[in-house]
Amino acid sequence: MAESADGRKTVYLHVGAPTAGAAFLHRALWANRRRLADAGVGHPVTGPNEHFGAVMDLREMSWGGHRDPAWDGAWDRVARRAREWDGPTVVFSHGLLGGASAAQARHAVATLEPAEVHVVFATRDLGCSSSSTGRSRSATTTTSRSSGSWTTWSSSASTRPSRSGRCSGACTTRSGC
Questions:
Q1: Which of 69, 71, 83 minimizes the C-alpha distance to 47?
Q2: How far is CA 45 from CA 15, 42, 65, 142, in A?
Q3: Strand, coil or helix: what is 62?
Q4: Which of 53, 93, 130, 165 could form a disulfide with 71 if both were Cys (CB 3.0 to 4.6 A apart)?
């Protein structure tokens, strides 16, 4: 990975999707942060869970009815580290970034300027995601909801077959797997 064509730092924001492997990516980024740094890729968090607090701050959310005071200013601290990174590339990931409002997304990008920001969205086959999402919802709840067009997207996506024709993970339904 290199700087953008005009020499600016490149920041990749992985906004994930629930149950699409973001937790695995968080663990892999944290476990390999030194190796990534040696390759010029920064991961701008100081602890394995700081990405969560940063997103809670950016989106002004509470979790389970609780808002941790340590989250205040967490996004700006992560963005500052991203801007100050010596290397050409920075990667930040959290699935809850996908639910950011347009104003929150603009703020996120503005705090990373002058970097060139790329948004990476990963998802799973809808049939598999539906069963996994149900399991995730039973384990966690959030007090903020996205105002996106999930219904429109899911109804159109459910009529399309997956690219691979099968699930990439454990799936308890037959639809799409």
A1: 71
A2: 16, 9, 25, 23
A3: coil
A4: 53
Per DSSP, 97 falls in state G
pLDDT-derived band of residue 157, with 50, 70 and 90 as boundaries? very low
What's the token pair of residue 102?
């347009």
For position 77, what pLDDT does the model report?
97
The contacts of residue 43 (CB under 8 Å, 6+ apart) are 29, 30, 33, 36, 37, 90, 91, 92
Q: Tell me which range, 47-56, 133-142, 146-155, 163-172, is most confidently predicted by mean pLDDT.
A: 47-56
The mean pLDDT of 93-103, rounded to a whole number, is 91
Question: What is the distance between the alpha carbons of residues 90 and 84, in angstroms, rounded to a whole number?
Answer: 10
**Cα 40 to Cα 158: distance, rounded to the nearest angstrom:** 40
Provide the percentage of residues in the chain whose pLDDT is more than 90: 51
Residue 1's alpha-carbon distances to 5, 12, 30, 72, 89, in angstroms, are 12, 11, 18, 32, 7
Residue with token string 């049939």? 127
Length of the chain: 177
Q: Tell me what the pLDDT averaged over the chain comes to.
A: 76
Strands ordered across the beta sheet of 116-120: 41-42, 89-93, 10-14, 116-120
- Give CA–CA dist 75/93, Å, rounded: 12
